[in-house]
Amino acid sequence: MDVTYLTIDPDQPSEQALRLAASELSHGRVVAYPTDTLYGLAADPRNADAVDCIYRLKGRASVAPLPLIAADIDQVNACVKESSPLACRLAEGFWPGPLTLIYDAGATLAPAMLAGGKTVALRVPAHPVAAGIARVFCHPVTATSANRSGGYPLSEASQVAKELPHGLSLILDGGSTTGGLPSTIIDARGSEPVLIRPGIVPWDHVLQSLA
Asked: Into how many domains does the chain fold?
């Protein structure tokens, strides 16, 4: 399958481009797109075949779960079992933005994307393309980094096209992303936050927001 390469305005992506991405996702295909940190790979997390395609693209063992991005908190709540008071506070304080929260996964998500676990990592990104895709698709989409497993995360669409030449159906080129650190991941299911992965949001900022 040939990949479609589409240049878009990262600040004001056209609805036509977003609808094209959503259409590809609805057919079980994988789309590369810019986020507020790096380029990611979008697929329908309810579609086991699409999830398997991402693992094959990345050369990644299916023991590692795939994170998701959502357009808003309502989309998050629709695919998790519950949102703790702590998660609600952190979401209100840091979304949209590069803070990822761990939730107990809802029943609609494909078991393959959970890699045998029962939790899912979600965030609402501060990027019109990333959030726009989820909005038009009407459901959170996967947000794993657009690179081969073990490789450096990529901040240019041209790098994605070179590293993943086969298996993508659409690459949305929104120019350079900020790059640098990935999102910070926090388990917020309990009464106290647990740092899972350090990232662009400093841990002390998270703690200060809860003081």
From this structure: 1
